[in-house]
Design brief:
By secondary structure, this protein is mainly alpha-helical. Helices cover about 75% and strands about 0% of the residues. It folds into 5 domains: about 100 residues, Alpha-catenin/vinculin-like (Four Helix Bundle (Hemerythrin (Met), subunit A), Up-down Bundle); about 100 residues, Four Helix Bundle (Hemerythrin (Met), subunit A), CATH 1.20.120; about 110 residues, Nucleotidyltransferases  domain 2 (Four Helix Bundle (Hemerythrin (Met), subunit A)); about 110 residues, Four Helix Bundle (Hemerythrin (Met), subunit A) (Up-down Bundle), CATH 1.20.120; about 160 residues, Up-down Bundle (Four Helix Bundle (Hemerythrin (Met), subunit A)), CATH 1.20.120.230. Belongs to the vinculin/alpha-catenin family.
């Protein structure tokens, strides 16, 4: 609204409609400021240390809002030039000054309010720390119950405050760090209870004391990290780290290499060489790992060597092109750029395969939790030798899982997932020794119920983290394949330039705000359909199935088209959208072929229905291709074409939502013996059985279990009777 006033153009003739509109804007600004200031003043009254500053900022904001209202009070003026009353037309600089004062004071109010929120979180953290110190020193069970009840209430308050703050964070990296810290606090709250109780029951047991100290230490670290995130401070003044993952390193390197097309002088050859050296140093984490297969190690070393050669060739041509820009040299440079980027893509694919295949194998191998079960049994038996044997096996398992997390971090694809990998690594690193100390305590006191309960809590934390790893692995694969995170780079868009001469005549066009508003409903429908298709494809046991692959690809492209309707995503112009629609239609035609192939193999009552639905797909895809290729001129005609392409894409996606469950049902019938399908080769059956597509548990909405914690605190009174 303020921008509208500032950008208002002075015209000799002003209609009543214009005058009324200006007055409405001015009044709306003043009313909004009034409501905002009322909240600010209420905050000031509740926080005396900032009351003066907040009150001054609120007064300034209110004054500026009233000034804007006065200067825009022009609707009643028939001849504003001859009137002595000052208005926006006679003193536009006054509106500019008032607007600046308003924005400045509003910003000040927001900053002060934010300081208050931060102070509340810090105060809450300090309360938790103080109560934790009391819990550490407690010597009687009755005193422990009382203090822990207070501690539980304080943790609930801290959970609410940090949860709200996490939702308000705009930085995805900070949000992920906050979620990780709050997850630690959630799990450690229960660990702290059982570890402390075990220590109270067995005060002379060294392993019980070590177990309890580990929980307190980890909670303090998590609390400190929350404050670092909230206050945006880093310990010891450390700076932001350079990209520490191979994925981000390759992405940055490729951006620099591709930038040579536009500017041959924006960076030095030493800069590029250093970037590649850093990436190749990180690949040593794979080649030096005892868990990397011989085949992967050889491929990574080979691609690393090739990357150096491709860069040498690129630098040679690049240096020549700087001195002499001939057509041949520029073509050679383009080839060198493409070869270098292709080599880096292959390297990225290889390390991704190495990390994810290791993770899949390890998670599958440890899914039965045999070592944890053995520790519980031998602990209850009081068999110290057997416990020692299984703790060694758990330590080996811990080293494997820590290495898995380190390698996954390199290929995670996004900063939030990278942080999740680091959090998982820390969890395995810390929880492993804690399980060992809890098991040793139980072995020393095999009849102790609380020692048994304590071991159960730590084992559950380990199992929970393994379960989370399955979900994390799936998300990493989704990002790599373009289905999540940076949202599906499933695009076959041409790069404008000499290799696409046919595009020169096309003028790129973007949708304006009004057009985006018109097409928003259609775009939203498309978005909902992509979610439905994704949900259906996730139900398939065999994610490598050709029908699933085509369905996921089409959903990916439809999602990109939805983002286009919002002015977001990788499709920047209408020409990009039309090209994507063509690719989408081609993918739909391939899906139709796969459906016919399935129908040839199926002998079931649902076969006619499958054929009927599949027959609809081909003409729908052809209609979309025709619409996307149609030549149009003018803004109105272009928008009509955009609308038609998205409408036809929506229709195809609707049909896809019906086809996928039908195909899945037919395949399941066959597997159950209710249908008849030609047998697949044995290797295919093995692949389905040993695949890593097990359904991962759904992620909880609130990573800090506030309700469970509240319930736990409520039931604390029963501890005394125990």
């Amino acid at each position: 609204q303020i921008t509208t006033l500032i950008n208002h153009k002075d015209k000799p003739k002003r209609s009543d409609k214009t005058l009324q509109a200006i007055q409405r804007v001015g009044q709306a600004v003043n009313l909004a400021v009034g409501r905002f200031v009322t909240v600010g003043e209420a905050i000031a009254n509740e926080n005396h240390e900032l009351k003066e500053e907040m009150s001054v900022a609120c007064i300034e904001a209110r004054r500026a809002g009233e000034t804007i209202a006065q200067l825009t009070d022009v609707a009643s003026l028939d001849h504003p030039e001859s009137d002595s009353h000052i208005t926006i037309f006679t003193d536009k600089t006054g509106v500019v000054k008032a607007a600046r004062l308003l924005l400045s004071s509003v910003t000040k109010v927001l900053v002060l309010a934010d300081r208050i929120v931060i102070k509340q979180i810090i105060t809450s953290r300090n309360k938790v720390l103080a109560t934790m110190e009391q819990l550490e020193k407690v010597s009687s069970f009755q005193e422990f119950v009382q203090i822990f009840s207070q501690f539980g209430n304080e943790m609930v308050e801290f959970a609410h405050l940090t949860g709200d703050r996490q939702n308000d964070l705009k930085d995805e990296k900070k949000k992920a760090r906050m979620a990780a810290s709050r997850a630690v606090l959630e799990k450690c709250t229960m660990m702290l209870l059982t570890a402390s109780k075990t220590c109270l029951r067995h005060p002379d047991c060294e392993s019980a004391r070590i177990n309890k100290d580990g929980v307190f230490h980890r909670m303090r670290l998590a609390l400190e990290q929350v404050i670092e995130i909230v206050t945006d401070s880093r310990p010891n003044g450390e700076n932001e780290m350079a990209p520490i993952s191979i994925y981000s390193g390759i992405k940055e390197f490729k951006n620099k290499v591709e930038g040579l097309r536009e500017n041959l002088y924006f960076l030095s050859k030493e800069n590029l060489s250093t970037m590649l050296e850093v990436i190749l140093e990180h690949t040593e984490d794979f080649t030096d790992s005892a868990y990397t297969s011989h085949e992967h190690r050889e491929h990574i070393l080979e691609l690393s060597k090739q990357a150096k050669m491709e860069l040498e060739q690129l630098v040679s041509v690049w240096m020549q092109a700087q001195n002499q820009k001939t057509k041949d040299l520029m073509e050679d440079l383009e080839v060198a750029i493409l070869k270098t980027c292709q080599c880096m893509n292959e390297l990225k694919r290889e390390v991704h395969s190495a990390a994810t295949s290791l993770a899949a194998d390890l998670l599958k191998y440890h899914t039965d939790h045999m070592v944890l079960k053995a520790l519980k049994i031998t602990g209850v038996e009081g068999n110290l030798e057997a416990v020692a044997e299984y703790t060694c096996k758990l330590s080996e398992q811990k080293e494997q899982l820590v290495e898995m997390c380190r390698l996954l971090r390199h290929v995670s694809g996004t900063e939030p997932l990278e942080i999740t990998c680091i959090h998982a690594e820390d969890t395995f690193q810390v929880t492993g020794p804690q399980i060992i100390s809890a098991a040793e305590t139980l072995a020393l006191h095999p009849s102790s119920k609380i020692a048994k309960e304590n071991l159960e809590v730590f084992c559950e934390a380990w199992e929970s983290q393994l379960s989370d790893m399955s979900l994390l692995l799936r998300e990493i694969n989704d990002v790599f394949e373009g289905r999540r995170g940076e949202k599906r780079v499933y695009l076959s868009l041409p790069r404008p330039g000499k290799h696409n001469a046919n595009l020169k005549a096309l003028k790129p066009v973007k949708l304006d705000t009004e057009e985006q508003a018109k097409i928003a409903k259609l775009g939203l429908e498309l978005h909902l359909l992509t979610s439905d298709v994704d949900s259906e494809t996730e139900k398939w046991e065999d994610q490598e199935n050709e029908i699933v692959q085509h369905g996921q690809g089409m959903s990916s492209m439809a999602y990109s088209m939805y983002l286009f309707t919002r002015g977001e995503g990788l499709l920047k112009t209408t020409q990009d959208l039309f090209h994507q629609a063509e690719i989408f239609a081609t993918e739909g035609t391939k899906l139709a072929s796969a459906l016919h192939a399935l129908s040839d193999q199926v002998h079931d009552d649902d076969k006619p229905l499958l054929l009927l639905e599949a027959e609809k797909l081909i003409p729908m895809c052809k209609q979309l291709q025709i619409a996307a290729k149609a030549s149009v001129q003018g803004k109105s005609a272009t928008f009509t074409k955009v609308d038609a392409c998205i409408l036809k894409t929506r229709n195809v996606m609707t049909l896809l939502c019906q086809l996928l469950p039908l195909c899945c049902k037919l395949l399941r019938k066959n597997k159950a013996g209710n249908g008849c399908l030609k047998p697949a080769p044995p290797w295919k059956e093995d692949r389905i059985r040993t695949g890593t597509n097990a359904r991962a548990p759904e992620r909880r909405v609130d990573t800090f279990g506030i309700k469970s914690l509240e319930n736990h605190v409520t039931n604390m009174t029963f501890l005394e009777s125990k």
